[in-house]
Design goal:
By secondary structure, the protein is α/β, with parallel strands linked by helices. The protein is built from 7 helices and 5 strands. A 5-stranded mixed beta sheet has the order 1-3-2-4-5, sandwiched between helices.
Length: 148
């Protein structure tokens, strides 16, 4: 009985942590810029194909959902997922926003995943395309250079 209760508790806590981590990411670009301006932060844009792009899925799993990354970015960035799913359904408003951002930041030429860091005025501070298995510390080091 104790094992069952303990197992259930671990499962519930695990779900709670996953929910908190997922809630760190926003989808509204304009709102993110306003938040960044108010909090003196930068905005990290993750252009992703969340349900079809292998490198995008790996980047999210291995870096963007990791506590070390989320702890660092909570202090310095507003996180925005700009998604282009094939199976999941987005609202018309979100699709229109994402299409506009795709054009604005030249994602068609760059591919997925593309990560772009902008200041609260939308000026690009740094970017990279692709994911080759970097660890959270590798991505954090890159982001830290762009904060300077």
């Amino acid at each position: 009985m104790k094992t069952c209760v303990l197992s259930c508790l671990v499962l519930v806590l695990g779900c709670a942590v996953a929910t908190v981590s997922a809630s760190e990411w926003q989808t509204n670009y304009e709102k993110a810029l306003a938040t960044a301006k108010a909090e003196n932060k930068l905005v990290l844009l993750d252009f992703t194909g969340s349900d079809w792009c292998g490198p995008c899925i790996a980047l999210k799993k291995n870096v963007f959902s990791q506590p070390k990354f989320l702890e660092y970015t909570a202090k310095h960035f507003v996180l925005v997922e700009i998604d282009y799913p094939r199976k999941a359904v987005l609202s018309d408003e979100l699709k229109a926003q994402n299409k506009k951002l795709e054009i604005q930041y030249g994602i068609e030429e760059k591919g997925f995943p593309t990560v772009i860091v902008v200041n609260p005025d939308g000026k690009i501070m740094g970017e990279f395309t692709g994911y080759d298995g970097e660890e959270p510390a590798d991505i954090i080091a890159r982001l830290e250079k762009w904060r300077s």
